[in-house]
Amino acid sequence: MDWGRAKNVLIYAFLLLNLVLGYQLWNDLREQVNSNPDFTSLESNIQKAMDEKQIKVLAKIPSDAPELPKISYRFINGGQSKEVVELKAPVDSKLIYSPKELASALKTSLPDLGNYRYDEPASREGEFVLHPLVDGKWPLFKIDLSLFYSNQKIISYREQAIEISSLEGEKNQQVLSASKALGNLIENFLPEGSVVTEIELGYYGEVFNSDEHLPAAPSWRFILESGKEYYVQGISGDVISPNTEKAKE
Asked: How large is the angle between the packed helices 44-53 and 178-188, nearest 10 degrees?
């Protein structure tokens, strides 16, 4: 055996292993940094209030604050009905994580499913919850499409069918930043010990007994570890807690 050559091979192997491990460590650190909340976007008085009230924010605070318009929507085809419709052929529940495949599998029963997005925090045991998208991007919270599953198969659904349209003469407006909205909640609304786990921008819609067009405005959704939700209207800054159905200034 050529021990010199074998020694060189081992050295090169160890060097390669160190490079791989080093890259993996760097990649893990980068992902950790990217996933950690950036509290520098919060003003010093807000950070102080967080400490005093022992509030934790585990969700990443979005930095984008796009310009968006208010919109309107109306229920169609009995869209407010609570009727559950059985699927003729059950669908593998794994497809909920593959939107295109899910839309393809349910295109006969739910042809518009491609314009919905799965909402994991709103879902529960036996029920996947999805929301319609405004402009293909922003979820319309509180308007649900429920997919019911059992034994790893989606077996039925309940749909709040709606039609989304623009408001005449409505212009895009700058949405309140997530850090500003969060700051207001921390100072004035969140109870001590709250843990914020989800922050997402969408539109806030409600279910009313009406066939008329209903307004919806861009809103930040904040979900606590307890499951309680707060919505901050992105234009006016009003705070809504659906758990109490009370809007506050």
From this structure: 40
Tens digit of each residue's pLDDT (9 = 90 or more) over 100-154: 999 999 999 999 999 999 999 999 999 999 999 999 999 999 999 999 999 999 9
CATH topology of domain 81-159: TATA-Binding Protein (3.30.310)
Whether 134 contacts 71, CB under 8 Å:
yes
Q: How far, in Å, CA of 67 to CA of 173, rounded?
A: 5
Number of neighbours of residue 216 by Cβ within 10 angstroms: 24
Task: Give CA–CA dist 100/11, Å, rounded.
Answer: 48
Q: Which CATH class is domain 41-69+167-248?
A: mainly beta
pTM (global) more than 0.70: yes
Contact 117, 131 (CB under 8 A): yes
As beta bridge partners, residue 132 has 116
- Closest among 187, 143, 155 to 51, alpha carbons compared: 187
pLDDT digits (tens, 9 = 90+) for 31-82: 444 444 566 778 889 999 999 999 999 999 999 999 999 999 998 876 667 7
